User: Fold these one by one.
Assistant:
Number 1:
Amino acid sequence: MTTVAAIFEKQSKDMFRNIGVLAMFVVFPIVAFALENLIQNPYMEGGVFVGQMAAMFIAMGLVMSVGTIIAEDRENNSLRFLIIAGVKPMSYILGIGSFLFLASAVTSAAFGFIGGLGLAGLARLMPVMLSGAIASILLGAIIGMIAKNQQAATGMAMPIGMALGMGPIAATFNETVDRVFSVFYTQQVGVFVSDPTMSLTRPLATIWINIAVLAVVFGVVYNKKGRAS
């Protein structure tokens, strides 16, 4: 736990120095609030824009943030030193991801309040949002490990994040897209935020299957790419 705490402390300091990453946790709730209040369509259910922006935050915001952070560690050779020192994949991702996870909790709560959820609704929302955050932290970490540098990480993370984030938006208007993207965690986040009264079983089950797959891939990539950094 000492290693995890040290990495957590480093990340918390780096976070407030990186305005671009910090902005990712603020801009999406602001856009959701603006769209919900500026666009009044009687044919659209309330909370649709909140769900869409929540999915975009989980996908694009987190994936790009984590990818950039880890690519920077590789560029600076700090990741290689950690691996040589015996830091395990779980310790590294816990240290990097735990601070981003806490920041995601604040942003997730903001989406809940924008969507007009009370405490009971927020208690149902948080497990889905934070499970999605875990999946995106892992995906961003994989991208950061694969990319050669920060620029390459951003170049990889942006289209992947956009695809995962735009999927739930397109699914709102197209049943085929809805069926295709239903296996991805961001779709489950978007659907649940739009309709927080639905059962938690399918969203959480789908998201945690995604997490299990991404965790295995991250462990393999960490041990392979980290030593070669």
Number 2:
Amino acid sequence: MDHQIYDLIYAEEPKAKFAEAFTTAKIEDASDFVHEERFSILLPPEVTTMEYYKFLIRNHFGNVSLNFGLAVTQRSPELLEAWNQIKVERAQAKLEEEVRIVDDLIIERKVQ
């Protein structure tokens, strides 16, 4: 059985970013008399929960996602794993940048 992720996003601004990242997702206005500037997203079955959480974390959309908020309160193992993977990716990118800076300094000193 296919599992599809449904979420409510409580902001209008990120709609284009969601549409760009998930081109086959069903995105609809979900505003009502209480919540304005809200939209819903139904992701295709091939998008995993882990991929979705990583997208939310990378783009700083966790604070506007109902799904993400619920996962935080429930201490979802998938959310914790997504966060750990993002931390490792960020640490690796920072390390690579620091190595590049040192390499540039070494090359610059050799040239002098």
Number 3:
Amino acid sequence: MPNIQEDRRVCIVGIVHDGKDVDVLLSTRVDLAGRRLAVYSSSVVQPGLASLKEISNLIERIVVVGGFVDGSAIYSAKLLSGIP
């Protein structure tokens, strides 16, 4: 039986757009390349959506982010690498 959470796991390389969105350049999921994704530190099951604060100072910088994709957003996201 497939694990739904594992199927949603993703890692992206992209450029921070406005401190909460990332323009995806590369992704472990082909369908996400070229898209803009909102990046949240909170889980998709939590009622509030908290943006990933670590990327707010990296506008127009390249970042690597991992998390779980759901539609047009990444949840439970973690900044894996960023160029300050």
